[in-house]
Amino acid sequence: MKLSEVFTMWKKIIALARKPDREEYLLSMKISLLAFFLVGGIAYFIRLLASILLQALT
Fold first, then answer.
1. Exposure class string for 8-27: b at 16+ Cβ within 10 A, else e
2. pTM for the full model?
3. Is the predicted pLDDT of residue 58 greater than 90, yes or no?
4. How far, in Å, CA of 35 to CA of 37, rounded?
């Protein structure tokens, strides 16, 4: 792929890009926070379970 083709693709992407409105921004922030806390909660539960199992085995 030539460098000029890459710049052409970037130019098209920038031309199509737009700033999200308030509703779209809040929705994406809610989804991101939900995913963050969900993954964190799962990791905490696994760590807690591992800690309990290690104490039970010793």
1. eeeeeeeeeeeeeeeeeeee
2. 0.63
3. no
4. 6
